[in-house]
Amino acid sequence: MRSIFFMISGLMVMGLAYWAYHENYETQASLGDVRRLHQQMGAAQERLNVLEAEWAYLNRPDRLRDLAELNFDRLRLLPLIPESFGRIEQVAYPTNLLLDISNSIEVSSDNAPAATQAASE
Q1: What is the pLDDT of residues 100-111, one digit of tens each?
Q2: Where is the chain membrane-spanning (predicted)?
Q3: Quick one: residue 38, left, alpha or beta (phi over 0 = left, psi -120 to 50 = alpha)?
Q4: Given CA atoms 24, 28, 31, 33 in this order, what sign does their dihedral have?
Q5: In terms of Cα–Cα distance, which of 28, 83, 33 is closest to 20?
Q6: 3 state SS of 48
Q7: How far apart are CA 77 and CA 79, in angstroms?
Q8: Residue 27 is inside which H or E element, if any?
Q9: What is the CA radius of gyration of the chain?
Q10: With a threshold of 0.85, does the pTM exceed it?
Q11: Cα separations (Å) of 26 from 4, 33, 49?
């Protein structure tokens, strides 16, 4: 009886050792995935910072002014001044067209079973 108990205990210890070994490797793999994701996030953040810096460089007011002057013949871009804008009253809004419903047809499904019975006869 004692030997069976020792054998079962030994098998349980071996099973738990295998489980711990397996969990350790899964944890290590998960940590590697997390490290890789952090590296990808860092690289994406660096790319985003570079793109934001490029955008700020390309949208400098003096550069845009020079480009507008250079391409004035083609684009006819003028500086924005208050007189360039209109008033809200000057905007032409479309009129709301109402549908003519004087010759409407009443549709109801209250008599639907009766209508299907009459149609089948």
Answers
A1: 777 767 776 666
A2: 5-21
A3: alpha
A4: negative
A5: 28
A6: helix
A7: 7
A8: helix 2-58
A9: 39
A10: no
A11: 33, 11, 34
Say how many CA atoms lie within 13 Å of 119 toward its Cβ: 6
- Contact at 8 Å (CB) between 63 and 72? no
Structure tokens that stand for 51 in this block: 């793109």
Cβ(78)–Cβ(84) below 8 Å: yes
**Residue range 58-70, pLDDT digits in tens:** 999 999 889 888 9
Give the contacts of 22 (CB within 8 A, at least 6 positions apart). Answer: none
Structure tokens at 6: 């020792």
Task: Output the CA torsion sign for 8, 12, 17, 21.
Answer: positive
The two tokens of residue 96 are 């709301």
Residue 103 DSSP code:
T
CA distances for 31 relative to 16, 37, 44, 45, angstroms: 22, 10, 20, 21
If you search the block for the tokens 């899964």, which residue do you land on?
26
